[in-house]
Amino acid sequence: xxxxxxxxxxxxxxxxxxxxxxxxxxxxxxxxxxxxxxxxxxxxxxxxxxxxxxxxxxxxxxxxxxxxxxxxxxxxxxxxxxxxxxxxxxxxxxxxxxxxxxxxxxxxxxxxxxxxxxxxxxxxxxxxxxxxxxxxxxxxxxxxxxxxxxxxxxxxxxxxxxxxxxxxxxxxxxxxxxxxxxxxxxxxxxxxxxxxxxxxxxxxxxxxxxxxxxxxxxxxxxxxxxxxxxxxxxxxxxxxxxxxxxxxxxxxxxxxxxxxxxxxxxxxxxxxxxxxxxxxxxxxxxxxxxxxxxxxxxxxxxxxxxxxxxxxxxxxxxxxxxxxxxxxxxxxxxxxxxxxxxxxxxxxxxxxxxxxxxxxxxxx
Length: 364
Hints:
The strands form nine sheets. Strands 5, 6, 7, 8, 9 and 10 form a six-stranded antiparallel β-sheet that branches. Strands 23, 24, 26, 27 and 28 form a five-stranded antiparallel β-sheet that branches. By secondary structure, the protein is mostly beta strands. About 5% of the residues lie in helices and about 40% in strands. It has helices spanning about 35-40, 140-145, and strands at about 5, 15, 20-25, 30, 45-55, 70-80, 85-90, 110-115, 125, 135, 155-160, 160-165, 170-175, 180-185, 190-195, 200-205, 210-215, 220-225, 235-240, 245, 250-255, 255-265, 275-280, 290-295, 300-305, 310-315, 330, 340-345, 350, 355. It is built from two helices and 30 strands. It folds into three domains: about 5-145, CATH 2.40.50.120; about 155-255, Sandwich (Immunoglobulin-like); about 255-355, Carboxypeptidase-like, regulatory domain (Immunoglobulin-like), CATH 2.60.40.
């Protein structure tokens, strides 16, 4: 859902109890400013909880499960979208403990509420990650909300552009922000280009309510993909003119390595796991820059977006797979000492890294 700004991570811990093993789930949310919450929310108000009702509304066409609770508020102060004296919102789904869509309200207590409207049903809902909080913890929110200037030209878009840079003190590449990166904002009569500052940050303010498009123009050594592998360099943004939206970009480096796995007769081997791991690890349990690919029907593999450092390539190179799988280092060495080290900087494209699996020695 668009309004969600939490990390939907359900961490599972196993705890021993007299009843056996208990599963405990947790929801982690990133910090969201009152300015961001005010822009994302459909209704923002200070409200006192009059009633908390278990909500057994059935799902509609399997689109969504029933809500857990229905909350009735007396509106004490309306900032947007809550013009009636009372407002009903829903919270929680069937996921149970750790549900990011759930916020625990208590009857008689007062909250600053950021509620989000379902475009199909018109229902307002509140989750743990949308900025809602008890009045006792909402002083910063109230200071912002009560001092928004009149009108709808107070919108703001800001963020950072991240990348990779060489740290001379550590003598290695590390994550950083990128200065001087162009961004183009268009929409509602605006066509404006700005550059990220020395810290890799940008800000566009004084924007009125409307729909905008923000495009980042990255250096050629980077690429940016969404979760569905689509181009993520362009963001579509809705502003209500009274809040802000944060849009940061996390591009990947265009480092690739390609090769094949064949048997001793030159026949391609399919579904073989190939590993690319750092030569040296400060912590052997750290898998941050470990890469794994499986060969296709033609025995080919390709690693993409490889972080800049020195690597070893091979099959079962950490020796922790089944015994019938041989340890093979590129170029077809049987031990780490004879392996070729592969160095990656920025924007490196390597091919021809071929491995041979000798069936005479091992089966698979």
